[in-house]
Amino acid sequence: MTLHTAPTPPAAGRPTLDGLLERLSTEEKVSLVVGAGLWSTTAIEHIGLRAMHVSDGPAGVRGITGEPTETSASFPAPSALAATWDVDLADEVGAVFAAEARRHGVDVVLAPQVNLQRTPVGGRHFECYSEDPLLTGAIAVHVVRAAQDRGVGMCVKHFVANDSETQRTTYLAQVDEKTLREVYLAPFEQLVHEAQAWSVMGAYSGIDDGTTAAPALEHRPLLTGVLKDEWGFDGVVVSDWVATNSVEASAEGGLDLQMPGPDGPWGDGLLDAVRDGRVSEDLLDDKVRRLLLLAQRVGALEGVAPAGDRRDEVGEVDVRDVLRRLVGRSMVVLRDDERALPVAPHDVRRVALLGPNAVHPFVQGGGSAYVRPERSSTPAHALHDAFGAEVDVHAGAVSRMLPPQLELATRCTTPDGQPGGLGELLDADGRVIAARTTTEWNGWLREVPEQAVALRIRTTVRLDEPGRHEVGVGTVGRHRILVGGQVVSTGDTVVGAEVILDSSVNQPAPATLVIDVDAPTTVEIDATVQAVHPVGYESFARAELVHRIPGTSPDELLAAAVDAAAAADLAVVVVGTNEEIESEGYDRTSLALPGTQDQLVKAVLAANPRTIVVVNAGAPVLLPWLDEVPCVVWAWLGGQEWPEALGDVLTGVTEPSGRLPWTLPAHESDVPVPDAVPVDGVVEYHEGIHVGYRSWLRLGRTPAAPFGHGLGWTTWEHESVVADVGPDGAVDLDVVVRNTGPRAGREVVQVYVEPPAGSSTDDRPVRWLGGFAVVHAEPGERTTVRVRVGATAFRTWDTARPGWLHPAGTYGIRVGRSSGDLRLAVDVTLPGDTAAGLSGPEGGAPRGT
């Protein structure tokens, strides 16, 4: 199998990249390394170069138009893919990325994110693959390689140690060199050596490695010294959006492309810096050559086909089939004491489908990972189709804290009595420069003209229902909000791009007025909000009109759910998080399920012992009832196919064969890294190399479920293991496993490495993942799976040299079903070395046979 295909050479008569470079003026060269817009690079017609288009993101290809009509296939969150531990399925996902990119006219997808899940409260936890660097790198390599084999670039992000969201544009990650090398740089190194990644995105945050403290885009020892010079990365280093804050420092540091453009430091100052000699033309040429190579690879140069020996297969993928199988396989059976899975449909005539996420499932996180799904379904419809049974749906609990959107079309009138609301754009003198009435308002006005400084919205809201109403407006920036003639909020702070970067614009906390209604009445909203003109982004105004109507009390919601559960043959309780909790831009403050969901689970279980709990969340949450519920399935943020895949899992179409790619805590106080809040602008990586489960093992703490845990729907016996040490220092393991259960199933054979006796726990973890493989077996079948533990699994960074060492000694090899369920052991003695060098593509992503 060809793992990487070089770019298609120029056709006869076509100039080389250096030949194209020679035809460019200095002004044209500078224009190439500055974005032409939000999602595109500069085109230069006379050399046959078209614009290259880039797009978010990690859970689908959003597209480049920004129009509401542009929809996309909504993928499961990346952590769900990692939960499959299946590199072949990752290949299929890479093919889907390529197909979706081509459908949207996208050349480079801004994914995958290979930062690590250092803390469970990280806001983008769901968007990352794993807390383990090997699993992260192995999955990412296959996604990237499969997409690039089809001529679509992937931009690996965020380089490096950008693992939390609080103050993400300014904080300094204090990470020692050994930890950087062994943990946080490791997935990037894999992607350069094994996938030949075409692009890498530099982070907003800064890094202090003990020698150099600088913003990521200015960190020359890492960007140029390690990534480009040591690893041989020949692609483009692109900035995170509006992250560039300097000219010379970032240019010398290793940044190649400032995005977006044409505004920003490079758009304003790079040309002068080159002319003045502050940035050399040779350095500029290197950046342009990298851009031209990327253009050649994606087919943006006239007469040059995209790279990749599978580029003609882009259209040959069934997107929905891949996504549905992926989300089904990713689901993790945390507990199934009574073998409840799968459920025979003929045994069920009535299903009680309960929980706030049963009514409104949370299928994708916020921020860069969000797309407008091309299709949607509901768990109720999916389970009705899967079981052929009556499905009784009740929320049973409250989980969302923010009031819902105001129904403008059915409940509101303009000042002149028309249905809807009146919006007026105002200039600096308060004059109306544009106005329109609308009955369709999603809280956003985009492409606001430059002369507009504010948006005023007026509407009269009809309050028909007796009881307590809550009415208001959520916004960002300068504003004045009146409800019922009362000023409920005012602010003078003028905002810009920062509200996009911290995601506060996505979920603005509304200012509201509570109104007790005895008889039908009305209340007026008069809101004037800032028109935001952020550098690098399109202009907008934000006014989220909200209205919470009197409704069923939490006690009444719970009682209705309990009654439904008692009357059903099967109760399925879907609990989880939502868009208020898991998003780019902010970290979580608690691991508890929001609202009253824990009470719901306990009450339903008491009413119907035949209860299955489904956890619809991307990042860990506390499950205080885990030991009481007979069957619990972790179901992730599953994208557009999630409802149908849930039906497949419950009824036996697809085995929920996922394994946790992170550790599930039982108590918040047990979490080794409980928060991500910078102290005086610094995030100290005090745990060093002991990230995730490594810290749990070192501290001797017992989680609710360990890294790698997952039961599936059959049982397995690990019978024997034989190890063979190769001349390259890699260890090949032949593991015999037997399916001892009643159903065919998939097993993930996990191999962990333990250091030689006497090793310092500061220098080596207690145990770390060395390799893994997926195997399928029929009931009673015995099969042998080969797992390779690459030589890189045994190396350690010597800061004194500096360089890699492979210490000699006897290493413990432990084989099992998770980091906490080890079934087999074998020791291997390695000769080691003292001159392993700085880096190299040795080892590699483990593969099973």
What is the chains' assembly state? single chain
The average pLDDT score comes to 94
CATH T-level fold name of the largest domain: TIM Barrel
Form type: globular
> What's the number of helices?
20
Number of separate structural domains: 4
Tell me the fraction of residues in β-strands, as a range: 15-25%
**Helix percent band:** 10-25%
Low-confidence runs (pLDDT<50, min 5 residues)?
Answer: 1-9, 839-849
Protein described:
This protein has 4 domains: 20-61 and 74-305, TIM Barrel (Alpha-Beta Barrel); 320-396 and 554-699, Glycoside hydrolase family 3 C-terminal domain (Rossmann fold, 3-Layer(aba) Sandwich); 408-441 and 444-542, Sandwich (Jelly Rolls), CATH 2.60.120; 716-830, Immunoglobulins (Immunoglobulin-like). Strands 12, 13, 14, 15, 16, 18, 19, 21 and 22 form a 9-stranded antiparallel sheet that branches. A hairpin with a 7-residue loop joins strand 21 (521-532) and strand 22 (540-542). Helix content is 22%, strand content 25%. The chain has 849 residues and is of the alpha/beta class. It is built from 20 helices and 36 strands.
